[in-house]
Task: structure prediction
Amino acid sequence: MTPTSLALTVNGKPRAVEDVPASERLLDTVRWRLGLKGTKEGCRSGDCGACTVLVDGVSMLSCLTLTHEVEGTSLTTIEGMADDPVGREVQNAFERAGALQCGYCTPGFVVALAGLLRERGRSATVDELLSDLGGNLCRCTGYLSIARAVALLRPEAP
Amino acid sequence: MHRLSFDRPRRRAAPSGGPLIASGRPDARTKLDGSAVFGADLDVPGMWWAALVPSPVAHGRLRSVDLSPARALEGVVAIGAADLAALLPGATGDPDRPIFPTDTVVYRNQPVAAVAAPTRELARRAARAVRVEVDPLPVISDLEQVFPDWPGSNAESSPYVAAHVRAREGDLDAIFQGAETVVRETYRTSSVHQVALEPHACLAEVKDGKWRVRTCTQTPFGTREDVASLLGVPEESVVVEGTWVGGGFGGKGAALLEPYALLLAKATGRPVRLALGYREEFLLGRTTLPSVIRMETAVTGGRIVGRRVRLLLDVGTSLPGRDFATGYSIGFLLGPYRTPVFEVEGYAVRTNKPAFGPHRAPFAPQCVFVLESHLDHVAREAGLDPLEFRAAHLWKEGDTTPLGQAVGPFGLVTAFELARATAAQWRADAGPDSGVGVAVGFWSTGTGAGGEVRLRLSPTDLTVVQGEREIGSGSVLAGIASVAARSLELPRERVSVAYEDTSSAPFDSGVFGSRTTAALGRAVQAASLTLLEEIGKRLGGSGPVHLAVRAGEIVAEQGSTRRPIRELCSDSERSAGGIVASGRHYGTSGTIDERKVEAGTFYPYTDFTGAAHAAQVTVDRATGTVRVTRYAAFHDVGTVIDPMTAPAQVEGGIVMGLGTALTEEALWSEDGRLLNAGLLDYRIPTLGEVPPIQVTFVEGFAGAGPFGAKGLGEPPMIPVPAAVALAVRDATGAHVTELPLSSERVARALKLL
Result:
């Protein structure tokens, strides 16, 4: 397999990456070619969620995604969250609820939750959102503060 | 489903010092926007990637490590034992802990060589290319292979024993013969892993005679000492810079990868990054290993009259003389209960696994599970009310522990009564197959490990300069900042905590043992006093000095005198950032009544903190699956220092404890292979499994920390497996004597009923 170049939009800006082997994972492209280290490498096997990114607004595990699969798409990482109204809302809720400790799983949670809010719209309940976040692992918080952050984003929910 | 609440701290006495200030985490933004650089994120131009070459067997005689196939790959540097003399001229290192083995390998995946290359892929390929030839030797994968029964009197000389401890008081045999009830039981606990989400990672550089390493460590100074000792180089030549730490839990409390990365940096002349993949994190991690524990208790007239505790603890490849776990943990099998006549004995048993290592309250949750389950069982066998029975024996202030430590201010009885009342309410509205358990645990904050800080008071802000990185608990950035703010009566937003590497930071022992806020907080208090004294001299009056913020700047007040710090700084201080004052705190550890000790070293607990937990569970009688439905925790914390991070510590510790209680179990094969080295097979709690948790602080039983604070990092984990096990027994009658309480074990216990 010959490495090839590909183009995609990263946090709103067009980017090209050169000589990407067919087997390269999006996680490695994001971290080591694009230099965006906010996307964390945890298990590298789809079990922890720390590497979650948005591909055309949908949350994906970048460790299980091949870079060539996302050619031409719009990629959003944790570094792009501040420019996104939903992302900012999620970050603010996490800060207010103290929903982080060591912070290693935090980018994955923020990106996954921003993706869910976009995907499911305003109708999603707290329980639905929490259920969909079940694939993101956190070892520090015991998840309750994260659940409180989600609840802050849904003030109308019971 | 998620009813979320925690109680406001329960105040039993007015705290000294300024008001508590609720505030957000100072590290929130950098962690939420992805800019925080963790060890795993380290990256510099020209950096090479490293990989370790693992031993293919758990025990064997090393015949050869052939690096030539790796070296034949273009751009690869490989090093093994034979290269150390050239890389470290004149250095001896630590003969007990060689960097690479030369004779035998003692655990599977033990690094036998290391490689570096310009790319990660090439480094991995080179590591796989190294030819390692080993003649296999018999593998000890289970301590019961060594000691199927309690060992005889000559066991101390066994090559499999890394430590032996024994202490006693009174004539236990006579007590057992005369007692109304004697209950004897055997328990087993499993191996559990810290599972910090960030695997170990570091970046090393050797330049100008300095061994420099950036690493995600809980102890920059401890790592410096470790690296110097392992490489055999002077401590002054090693500089350790901590990065953000993606979870520690004890697993990042000693050097692991740093020596290899530094040697490769020396060999290549380049910066070298060495980071573990998650599978390797499981395989090389030093953590809690299995145990077999025998408990014997004699009861007469509703009171404990004698106890015997026998512990066999798997310590992996821990070296004789270096085991810390046995003498430390065995006390958790005795206390916090008054025990007049006793005999305790423990062996640290060596097996072919990585050495036992600290894991959030190392081995205490397992010991407390055994102790609480056993005493509950003893009460039932003796026809006594289990909660009354345990309550009647709890340590109180003024008691002396079996090994002679004085119990100081201790809120355990208060916490226990609160937990008991909560459990009674829950029991009243419980459904079928539901049960409630109450368990207690204690911890010792006073490790005696010391630390120092430097305060810098500028005209507008206070900075605490110190040498620890925040590992997530908040103990450094929130804890130390809160103590400084209270000590100097400044608003929290005027206080920040700065980090420096080991070449310039004041010394500190490390973020472990629930000591950080307690010990470094005392250093902050000492520095604050020195700072106020110095300011007092400059003000020239007498009487107490107070700081305050007026019109945006910090002013000092003494009686009717008031001057801004701006005017009190000398020119040189102003250019250096402010008035500087240092403070240190080297605590005292407890003492042991040596008359009772017959062998080994016991750990002298001091500055006791206690917790009582209540758990409610439902048990599926068909499958044995346990679901925790409600949880309440009552913690004797002395004084709450930071109102946001304190309850967060308790919630997180409880959920980690639920993993130990129910699902977490590292499985070892007979040939010493870790079978479930991954997050899919080694199951930590997930979001949907967490019950609502109610956290209550019992304040007013002052500890040795600042404003009477006690440590809080580890205690929340300790009573959890016990509380869950007692709830399972309450629900079903199943008496499970092994951890974790997996569905399989609970189902088996139910069938035996």
